[in-house]
Amino acid sequence: MSVAEIISTVLLALGGLVMLAGAVGVVRFPDFYTRLHAAGKADTLGQGLILLGLALPAGLGLVSFKIALIILFIFVLNPTATHALARGAWVIGLQPWARDRAGEQPAEEDA
Amino acid sequence: MKETPSLIVRYIARRAVPFIQLYALYVLGHGEDGPGGGFQGGVIFAASFVLLALAYGWGRGRASVPEKVADVIAPAGCLLYAGIGFVSLLIGGAFLQYDAFAGPGADQAARKTAHHFGLIGIELGVMLTVTASMVILFFEMARPAEDEAAEEGATFEQAGHIPEGPRAEESLDG
Fold first, then answer.
1. Which of B20, B13, B74 is CA-nearest to residue B45?
2. Does B5 score more than 80 pLDDT?
3. Partner residue facing A90 (CB), from B16, B163, B174
4. ∠B87-B90-B96 over CA atoms, to 5°?
5. Distance between CA B34 and CA A47 in Å, rounded?
6. Does the ipTM exceed 0.85?
7. Which one in B47, B73, B87, B173 has a CA-CA gap of 20 to 30 Å to B131?
8. What is d(CA A4, CA B151) in angstroms, rounded to the nearest whole number?
């Protein structure tokens, strides 16, 4: 295994771990905002790491250039989409979860 | 439909539109030898206008593609497609036989080049029609009703402030 392959494997594993953490967050967090927080951040970083891991063995070239563009766009557009979703929920009046009124909040406000 | 302008969404949407349109042309150019083509490219191109309408409101989005322009481009794409077919018929080939464009006595390479250009031509026709049709469909279906339009104009004026946040009574009722 060459050095690039080792680094790429580590990046892929790390990206998978981050995505897994995000997925667990989406399932386990109590309300829309916290789930969005988990999904938005973890997906952005996880996809970036996985794509970086895929780009490394390809070397400099058209493939890695395309992957670099994808990473750039994900890093700009994914947080924007998350922001739009959270803002939309806030504007229509969705209450953020809080520990002291956790009992009153209906469970149906899933995303 | 309440207007809720967000500076971040507007800024990113405006900056993303040229990249989406460039990507649509890339997909169009790939139709010959990979996934992609006129239809997919056209849909992606139209999606850039839908994004504009989502970020800026129906009126500003509609202004980026005037109704008359879309109404002309949709049949123009069909005309381009059929026109290429009839031109190849006129110069002695079959309907849509692109390699006839190279002329009667052309060698293999010239016929191949002509085939490429003919294919790109009809894909461009497909893309124009699909883009315009998608834009027309979206804006007609999303058109605000006449009485809502005035009301919407009013909320748009007031929408400069940051929303107050959730109103406790309302969200507990819902």
1. B20
2. no
3. B163
4. 50
5. 24
6. no
7. B87
8. 60
Report pLDDT digits (tens) over B67-84: 899 999 999 999 999 999
Task: Choose from B1, B2, B7, B9 for mutation: most chain A CBs within 10 A.
Answer: B9
Structural domain includes residue B122? yes
Q: Are B85 and B121 in contact (CB under 8 A)?
A: no
Is B165 inside any structural domain?
A: no
Overall number of domains in chain B: 1
Question: What is the C-alpha to C-alpha distance for residues B166 and B161, in angstroms, rounded to an integer?
Answer: 15
- Could you tell me the CA-to-CA distances from B20 to A75, B42, B142, B160 in Å, in that order? 16, 11, 21, 28
Q: Is B90 in CB contact (< 8 Å) with chain A?
A: no
Nearest CB partner across the interface for A93, out of B13, B16, B167: B167
Structural domain boundaries, residue B65: 7-148
Is the residue at B168 inside a domain?
no
Low-confidence ranges of chain A (pLDDT < 70): 101-111
Predicted pLDDT at B80:
93
